[in-house]
Specification:
The structure is a single chain. The mean pLDDT is 95. It contains seven helices and nine strands, in the order βαβαβαββαβαββαβα. The strands form two sheets. The chain has a seven-stranded parallel beta sheet with strand order 3-2-1-4-6-7-9, with helices on both faces. The protein is globular, with a radius of gyration of 18 Å. By secondary structure, the chain is an alpha/beta fold. It has a single domain, classed as 3-Layer(aba) Sandwich (Rossmann fold), CATH 3.40.50.720.
Length: 262
């Protein structure tokens, strides 16, 4: 373990798998105590136990980030367990339904926005008093290149809207919270090896798909998706004092994929 985040407390939503799991492990290895928040109990517990087995401090908390009382409880448990809160990684997200706009139901629209955008709002909202009490801290939000750099994937209207909203929300929060020493930054990953496909649903995409071909080596840098660990390194940087003068930034981490496709 290094010492970038010694004596810091971090909360990670969507921490049971993918980018969230990678971030939980990286934050703990940097010295932070970590609350692993996930909508599923078993993965959250597994990540917390992994951290504990490596000698770190962690607890698991089950919460649907779009349910206000549940995320409030997870944040309160963090403060009770570790005595404060310094780092918040609002990472939980789903792809949701991908289909033509005219076929999307209001229920499908709300399901994606409730997790991705409302969940980010609730996580940040209820963390602010604790970050302020700690004398400042860092909030990192997982958005996407979709909705900010890319707009061509078929059926992504709802997902991309939610991700664009996260960018705007993060910038507004960065300005509002700067007076209390709370930094807010948003990361925009491209392709990452995760299990997000488990909560991805597709319907009738053929009529809205454009025929496009990509080069054999894609993305341009390395020609492969990112690993969660590679994204986690950026999260640790933004969580630590190494980025003490960085706030309101949107940082693309996609191996130049959006430069080629955008």
């Amino acid at each position: 373990m290094d010492s970038k985040l010694t004596d810091k407390v971090a909360l990670v939503t969507g921490g049971g798998s993918g980018i969230g799991e990678g971030a939980c492990l990286a934050l703990a290895r940097a010295g932070a105590a970590v609350t692993v928040v996930d909508v599923f109990d078993a993965p959250a517990r597994a990540v917390a136990e992994h951290i504990q087995a490596e000698g770190g401090r962690a607890v698991a908390a089950v919460a649907d980030v779009g349910a206000e009382q549940q995320i409030q409880t997870a944040i309160a448990r963090t403060v009770e367990a570790f005595g404060g809160l310094h780092v918040v990684f609002a990472n939980a997200g789903i792809n949701g339904m991908q289909c033509p706009i005219e076929e999307m139901t209001l229920e499908e629209w709300h399901a994606t926005l409730n997790t991705n955008l409302t969940g980010t709002f609730l996580t940040v909202k209820h963390s602010i008093p604790h970050l302020r009490a700690a004398g400042g801290g860092s909030i990192v939000v997982t958005s996407s290149v979709n909705g900010s750099r890319l707009f061509g994937l078929p059926g992504y209207a709802c997902y991309s809207t939610s991700k664009a909203g996260q960018v705007a929300f993060s910038k507004m929060a960065a300005i509002e919270l700067a007076r209390w020493g709370i930094r807010v930054n948003v990361i925009l990953p491209g392709g990452v090896r995760t299990n997000i496909g488990a909560r991805t649903y597709r319907r009738n995409l053929e009529p809205i798909t454009y025929g496009m071909s990509l080069p054999a080596l894609f993305p341009p840098l390395y020609g492969r998706p990112a690993s969660p660990d590679e994204i986690a390194k950026l999260v640790v940087f933004l969580a630590s004092d190494d980025s003490s003068y960085v706030t309101g930034a949107e940082i693309v981490i996609d191996a130049a994929a959006s430069l080629l496709r955008g």
